[in-house]
Amino acid sequence: MKWLNHGLIAGAICAVVSPPHVPVCVAGATAPDWMEFVAKGLGRRIKHRGPTHIFTHWLIVALVFTLVWDYQGIGMAFAWGGVSHILTDAMTVSGVPFSPYSDRRFHLFGGRFRTGDPVEYAISAGVVIVCIALSHLTGGQGFAPFFYDWAGMYERGLIDALEWKTNRFRLI
């Protein structure tokens, strides 16, 4: 899958669950690929969809950050973004390694499409549409994680006049 689609899928899902963590989740959604570039820059030759794309490693890290310890959800968002990357790459013909102890590749839906196929964009669009619908059905007020309604907060009495005056022109 292309980075755009990895980012769209992970970002849309994260926006429904925790909008402030979207940037970290999107970084995690592209991490298995850019980790390959970092390894190559350090002189270690690894093949694409190799050691950085092992499903069990990403899943274990995500579960540890979710259930054991995490600092304000940052590690959890990053790791679940990585899991989404692995699951979407598993839909392609080449698949991903399931574990380091197996030479078999992991495929979802039979691994029926190639990277860049129109189906890839359709899947991304479908996930984004479903996430937008879920956000509206669950009472979300749209995806705007960093854009605060300072005037509305002042009118509702949540902030005082000084805080409104200080922040009224801040967009982010």
Structural notes for this entry:
The chain is mainly alpha-helical. The protein has two domains: 3-141, no CATH class; 142-172, no CATH class. It has helices at residues 3-17, 22-41, 55-67, 74-89, 118-137, 150-155, 161-167, and strands spanning 96-97, 105-106. The protein has a two-stranded antiparallel ribbon with strand order 1-2. Strand 1 and strand 2 form a beta hairpin. The longest helix is centred in the first third of the chain and has 20 residues, at 22-41. The chain is elongated and about 65 Å long. The mean pLDDT is 85.
Write the layout of secondary structure elements.
Layout (H helix, E strand, L loop, with lengths): L2 H15 L4 H20 L13 H13 L6 H16 L6 E2 L7 E2 L11 H20 L12 H6 L5 H7 L5
Antiparallel strand pairs: 1-2
Helix pairs in contact: 1-2, 1-4, 1-5, 2-4, 3-4
Largest sheet strand order: 1-2
Helix content: 55-70%
Q: What is the quaternary state of this protein?
A: single chain
Largest sheet: 2 strands, antiparallel
Q: Determine Rg (CA atoms, Å).
A: 19 Å
Q: Rough shape?
A: elongated
Please mark out the parts with pLDDT under 50 across 5 or more consecutive residues, or reply none.
none
Q: What's the number of domains?
A: 2
User: What is the chain-wise order of helices and strands?
Assistant: HHHHEEHHH
**How large is the count of helical segments?**
7
Mean pLDDT: 85
- End-to-end Cα distance, whole Å, is 31 Å
